[in-house]
Amino acid sequence: MFGINELILPLLGGYLFITRCLITRYVARLWSGYRLIFNSAIAGACSLIATVVVLGLARQEFPVSVENLSTFFNIPGYSNLGSSLVAFFLANLGWILFNFVLTVRDRLSGGDRQKLSIKYIENYANALQVLLAKSMQETRQVSVSLNSGKVYIGFVTKLNEGQGSQEFILLWPQFSGYRDQETKQLIITRDYSHIYDAIADPTSELSDVTVNDFQTAISVADMYSVSIFNPAVYSRFAEIYEDGDAELEDEQELVGTRTD
Questions:
Q1: Do the beta carbons of residue 255 and residue 210 sit within 8 Å?
Q2: How far apart are CA 22 and CA 2, in angstroms?
């Protein structure tokens, strides 16, 4: 019977499987606490069942070799350590083979790595990841408002897919600004297009600079809101705000005149 310490390796293997497999890795980001442990335990239990089957078949075909390995891993107090190691190995082999098969299948149908990642994000990720993936796929700008009030507008160039590390995006900014603390109106203060035009000019003093130098890493934890940005729509809203402010000023002047 497995001891508590001997179940750690299968549990770890199950955790690596659900956080690395293309089908479950994005859903796993939504799990936390007991649910993540429970699902890791289920995956680990499946690897233990596979271990029992594999070792049973191996004992029939290679009884001497299996017996020698069992003797080697027979540490006092850890009689099932060898089985735990095999379960850990099978769990990792499982997600590697699973991802390989899915990748080969989809690449044969004309997909590439980025398109494959976006496909699985759209199928299994949360709303934020889906929106960011959609902006990458359609090459559309996004407006990213930070908790500090700062706003970046640009193209998403990379989505961090690492589990266990801080989630972030890489953004190639086109504009930046801030939101008014009272009205929350977007106010653009910087337009990067002039700099990018200068970089493209070989006679410019910025010819040794690349646009990639302007990519900005933004932590998802620092994001307040994210939305697709359309310059034409923004310009239209800006006109409405300006018209509204002008009408408000006219009304205030009229009230002041009547008061006088």
A1: no
A2: 30
- Rounded alpha-carbon distances, angstroms, from residue 258 to 217, 248, 250: 55, 15, 12
Q: Say which amino acid occupies 94.
A: G
How far is residue 93's CA from residue 45's CA, in Å, rounded to a whole number?
15
Give residues with Cβ within 8 angstroms of 8, minimum separation 6: 84
CB 176 within 8 A of CB 151: yes
Whether the pLDDT of residue 174 is over 90: the answer is yes
Neighbour-count burial for 125-159, b at 16+ CB within 10 Å, e otherwise: beeebbbbbbbbeeeebbbbbbeeeebbbbbbeeb
Cα 47 to chain centroid distance, Å, stands at: 27
CB atoms within 10 A of CB 26: 23
Q: Two tokens at 111?
A: 């997909």
How large is the C-alpha radius of gyration of the chain? 28
Q: Which two tokens stand for residue 127?
A: 């709303």
Q: What are the tens digits of pLDDT across the range 228-246?
A: 998 888 888 777 766 555 4
Instruction: Give residue 200's Cα distance to chain centre.
Output: 31
- Give the helix, strand, coil percentages of the chain, each rounded to 5: 60, 20, 25
Are 28 and 163 within 8 A, CB to CB? yes
pTM above 0.70, yes or no: no
Beta strand 168-179 pairing with 216-219: antiparallel
